[in-house]
């Protein structure tokens, strides 16, 4: 959660975190190296009008990032005209990943 952040700012932070973690190499006691990657799903309030819809949108974006090969950031967007329908049941489409 990043209170006060817009979608672009949250995506940018998630991307910086993803890159920073990908640069870390872990060394096992046996001397073997391993790396860690992270995927992120990002959604924005008030695009998703309540906590449940916001978390569901971020979760859907996270799964899209994982399906796209992991180690990525995906953002959730809504494509509906009526705000009341967004609050009730969000329709989520995810843009192509960078």
Rg over alpha carbons: 16 Å
Runs in which pLDDT lies below 50 for 5 or more consecutive residues are 79-92
**Assigned CATH architecture:** 2-Layer Sandwich
Provide the CATH top-level class: Alpha Beta
What would the principal axes of the Cα set say about the shape? elongated
How many discrete domains?
A: 1
Helix content: 25-40%
Largest sheet: 2 strands, antiparallel
Mean pLDDT: 82
Can you characterise this structure?
The chain has a single domain, classed as Alpha-Beta Plaits. The protein has 98 residues and is an alpha+beta fold. Mean pLDDT is 82; it is low at 79-92. The longest helix is centred in the middle third of the chain and has 17 residues, at 51-67. The strands form 3 sheets. A two-stranded antiparallel ribbon has the order 1-2. It has helices spanning 7-22, 51-67, 83-88, and strands spanning 25-27, 33-35, 40-42, 73-75, 77-78, 92-93. The protein is built from 3 helices and 6 strands; from the N terminus they run αβββαββαβ.
């Amino acid at each position: 959660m990043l209170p006060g952040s817009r979608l672009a700012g949250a995506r940018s932070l998630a991307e910086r975190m993803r890159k920073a973690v990908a640069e870390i190499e872990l060394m096992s006691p046996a001397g073997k190296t391993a790396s860690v990657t992270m995927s992120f799903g990002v959604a924005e309030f008030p695009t998703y009008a309540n906590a449940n819809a916001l978390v569901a949108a971020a979760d859907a974006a996270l799964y899209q990032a994982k399906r796209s090969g992991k180690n990525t950031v995906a953002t959730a967007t809504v494509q509906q005209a009526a705000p009341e329908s967004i609050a009730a049941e969000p329709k989520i489409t995810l843009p192509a990943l960078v």
